[in-house]
Amino acid sequence: MQNADKGIQHALDGQDLHIGIVQARFNESITHELAMACVSELKDLGVQNIDHVLVPGALEIPVALQAMAERGTYDALIAVGCIVRGETYHFELVANESCAGVSRVSLDYNVPIANAILTTEDLGQAIARQTEKGRDAARVAVEMAMLMEDLNSDLDDLGDEAVA
Asked: Model's pTM, two decimal places?
């Protein structure tokens, strides 16, 4: 939801993070602006190590995310796409399947993925959301990467305590 109450913003530091972005070319004028807002925000948060790849459309995003996740070098990934409702059921299929694929990759590889695949009724809604959603995705990726690092560190500490 645009301009939603997102809660208290934690201090974010992406200096040591490696972030990957997968951008769909379909609706490229929108996805380009989403990706540029995302990259700009990542840099503002201190992220220097950013990989950015392009795929044809939203349905191809999950397989590219999976290939990146398999490398095991990314602290977080970001999915960037834009699906605009048309006159057929195709909108629902693409929206549902791309989202399910993104979630599956995140859970299967234990890597946070910020989902910035816009699903809108028309191009005007997409244009209105492109910058904010791109920036939000960057913040989500950094916040979740930091959280996962803390959780993994805490779990390692718990394992050490259990052995002692």
From this structure: 0.88
